[in-house]
Amino acid sequence: MNSTYTPSHLLCAVCGDPANEISYGVPSCSSCKSFFQSAQSPNAPPDPCIPDTCSDQCEFCRYQQCVTSGMRYPTERQLCQIVENMKL
Ligand SMILES: [Zn+2]
Ligand SMILES: [Zn+2]
């Protein structure tokens, strides 16, 4: 049995679509990556929604899904380590 775990076998931890990379610590598709990226803006995270009016497009619920899936913004210290690793 081939247990090799390559990115092509990964599914997005947020929405279950095929993931094309590891983003913010979890396998992620490009749309979830860009969503979480944009949610980092000064206006974010989005305001909590009202469950009765919540839809599939709800940004707050999608953001919560990202967080509960394990997505984390890298700390400044981690960013430094990433840069250090790239130098090697
Ligand atoms: Zn996704
Ligand atoms: Zn919602």
Please describe what this structure looks like.
- With 88 residues, the protein is mainly alpha-helical.
- The chain has one domain (7-87): Erythroid Transcription Factor GATA-1, subunit A (Erythroid Transcription Factor GATA-1, Chain A, 2-Layer Sandwich), CATH 3.30.50.10.
- It has helices spanning 30-38, 59-68, 76-87, and strands at residues 21-23, 26-28.
- The chain is flat.
- The chain starts with 20 loop residues before the first strand and ends with a helix.
- Bound molecules: zinc ion (ZN) (2 copies).
- One zinc ion (ZN) is lined by residues 49, 54, 58, 60-61.
Task: Provide a compact summary of the structure.
With 88 residues, the chain is mainly alpha-helical. 35% of the residues lie in helices and 7% in strands.
CATH class label? Alpha Beta
Radius of gyration: 15 Å
Give the amount of beta strand, in percent.
5-15%
Q: Major sheet, described briefly?
A: 2 strands, antiparallel
Number of self-contained structural domains: 1
The largest sheet has its strands arranged as 1-2
Share in helix:
25-40%
CATH topology: Erythroid Transcription Factor GATA-1, Chain A
Label the structural class: mainly alpha
Low-confidence runs of at least 5 consecutive residues: none
Number of helices: 3
Q: How many strands?
A: 2
What coarse outline follows from CA principal-axis ratios?
flat
User: What is the terminal separation in angstroms?
Assistant: 34 Å
Ligands and ions found = zinc ion
